[in-house]
Amino acid sequence: MNCKRAEKFLLLSFDGRLGEKDRAALDSHLQSCSLCREKEKEYRQIFSLLHVETPEPLPYFEDRLMAKLKEKEKSVPTLFWQRWTARAMAVSLAVAILFGAGALLFRPQEALELSQPEILLLHDENPLAEAATILEQKKPEDRNMMLIFAASEMRDPARRYRP
Ligand SMILES: [Zn+2]
């Protein structure tokens, strides 16, 4: 028996519409399939909730369940929605981790291959604007130091002289 068939049998069993042979087949599937055991647990909870809500003679459980699922989530036990949310969160987390790992892998390489102007652009510093900054320095000693450091073409921007 596959899981889809097991679920159908499960719904029938809640209505007492499952034959003895099918019941045995369902039981043996439940024993080997934790996914369907979990499903049975959820259905059991929903079933008991539906019983509490409607004391009058009931239509088939499956029909009621489908009707319930079509309503807004507030009237349906949150189990289904919780499961979907958890799944969506797991996926987006995996994507985030993937991107994070990608960034870590590629960043060091990038840093080594970048030229000096590219590094300046990466740090949002316009090379031309930097030249202008040097010339704008009021204190002549600051300007001289900056010119010296700029002329020596320091590879590391962190070591550039900043008064
Ligand atoms: Zn199963």
How are the secondary structure elements laid out?
Elements: H1 3-14, H2 20-32, H3 34-53, H4 61-70, H5 79-113, H6 116-122, H7 127-136, H8 140-151
This protein binds zinc ion (ZN).
Zinc ion is lined by residues 3, 6, 29, 33, 35-36.
General description of the model:
The chain is mostly helical. The protein folds into 3 domains: 3-72, no CATH class; 78-109; 114-163, no CATH class. It has helices spanning 3-14, 20-32, 34-53, 61-70, 79-113, 116-122, 127-136, 140-151. It is rod-shaped, with a radius of gyration of 34 Å. The mean pLDDT is 73. Bound molecules: zinc ion. Zinc ion (ZN) is lined by residues 3, 6, 29, 33, 35-36.
How do you describe this structure in short?
The chain has helices at residues 3-14, 20-32, 34-53, 61-70, 79-113, 116-122, 127-136, 140-151. The chain has 163 residues and is mostly helical.
What would the keywords be for this entry?
mainly alpha, binds zinc ion, 163 residues
